[in-house]
Amino acid sequence: MTRRPNGWNFRLTLLAGIALATLSLTGCDSTPRERQAAARQGAHELDTLARTAAGKLARVGKATARYDATNRARRARPLDPRRQIAMEGALLGPYSGQINALTPADLPDAYAQLVRATRARRAAWTDRDWDYARAVYQRLNDQLKQIRLDLPARYELPIRARQAEFVALQAGHAAAGISEASKQASPVK
User: Fold this and answer.
1) What's the structural domain count of the chain?
2) How far apart are CA 43 and CA 55, in angstroms?
3) What does the buried/exposed string (b/e) look like for 143-178 if buried means 16 or more CB atoms within 10 Å of the residue's CB?
4) Per-residue model confidence (pLDDT) at position 168
């Protein structure tokens, strides 16, 4: 299902109501010229709505492009190893410093710890903090690849669930960033 911009459903309902009212007023007693004028008026209103929606879509598209360009430039800068260690400690707690030694039995709990800490800290994070968190997440994923053949099937679902939750939290941050960028790009009314 596609999402429409705020107010879009209201505008469509309003347009349908105007068209219905126009048709009921211009029923059998109207002349072809009156019906033509009513149709022109309805088409004009529809064109206006389409132009407004196209303008909003263009602003969001430009804001998304700016956000992506800023992200690429920031991610191109290397991460500071000391901050990486600090973020790993903050996110993984007891599993910090031993990612490469995690066993199949430890991995589900390590992912759970990562997601718990991410949920607790994400509100105060900057985009750069998310880069460090993503690096910790990637290291866990790399360890999972190393021991995947030894991983019992009962651990697979909890790990996948935690991975999906981390990605969803990260996507929520990106969506908020794009929304903020589009608000900054919107003209003040």
Assistant:
1) 2
2) 18
3) bbeeeeeebeeebeeebeebbebbeebbeebbeebb
4) 96
Q: If you count DSSP H runs as helices and E runs as strands, how many of each does the chain have, helices first?
A: 6, 0
pTM of the predicted model, to two decimals? 0.69
Residue 105: domain span:
80-185
Tally the residues of the chain.
Answer: 189
Q: At what angle do helices 153-185 and 32-76 cross, to 10 degrees?
A: 120
> Within 13 Å of residue 6, how many CA atoms lie on the same side as its CB?
0
Residues 136 and 169 in one domain: yes
Amino acid sitting at position 119: R
Interval 84-111 mean pLDDT: 95
Asked if the structure places residue 1 within a domain, the reply is no
Q: Which two tokens stand for residue 189?
A: 């009314």
The residue type found at 33 is R
Structure tokens at 6: 């705020």
pLDDT (tens digit per residue) in 137-187: 999 999 999 999 999 999 999 999 999 999 999 999 988 888 888 787 665
The answer to the question of residue 19 being in a domain is yes
> What gap in Å lies between CA 40 and CA 22, rounded to an integer?
11
